[in-house]
Amino acid sequence: MSIEKVTSKQLKALQTISIQTFTDTFGADNSEQDLADYLDSAYSDTQLSSEIANPNSAFYFIKHNGNIAGYLKLNSNDAQTENPNPDSMEVERIYILPTFKRLGLGTQLIEYAIKMAQEAHKAHIWLGVWEHNTAALTFYTKLGFKQIGDHIFQLGDDAQRDLIMQKDLNLH
């Protein structure tokens, strides 16, 4: 298992895994049009290139036996999607391909995110999770995240409620 920072040269691989994992996670619960509209916007070459180039954002691939198995996106400072807080780091995206689930990779990515936040001297790490994604809610709760609020996540024409979950970090 390895975790490596994504570069602009890996744009197509990032785009492919982003579309695959988002569709796997949310495709069955959303209309084809809403899903297509979101995927075209969020994962376009232009959008992903801009996000990769942002110095306050970083993508990381997790590999299993040399294969890209999932990815993580971290945001700090003004790249955070909500209430930018200099003491916090956001996990904007964390996804594992279906064939690599149940191998502990999601836990490894969260632990990596926590390490990165601690190294950046952040007091908190936070994320938004869809209120109906019970598997993710259970996962984050077990890892010590607590709900601190909510917000609307717009998927095409469908306004959905995400729960904002935060974990306080012990700074060393």
TrEMBL record:
InterPro entries documented for this protein: Acyl_CoA_acyltransferase, GNAT_dom, N-term/lysine_N-AcTrnsfr
Domain N-acetyltransferase residues, every copy: 1-170
Keyword Methyltransferase recorded: no
GO MF term list: acyltransferase activity, transferring groups other than amino-acyl groups
Keyword flag Transferase: yes
Source species, domain of life: Bacteria
Keyword annotations from UniProtKB, A to Z: Acyltransferase, Transferase
PANTHER family recorded: N-ALPHA-ACETYLTRANSFERASE, N-ALPHA-ACETYLTRANSFERASE 50
Protein name: N-acetyltransferase
Organism: Latilactobacillus sakei
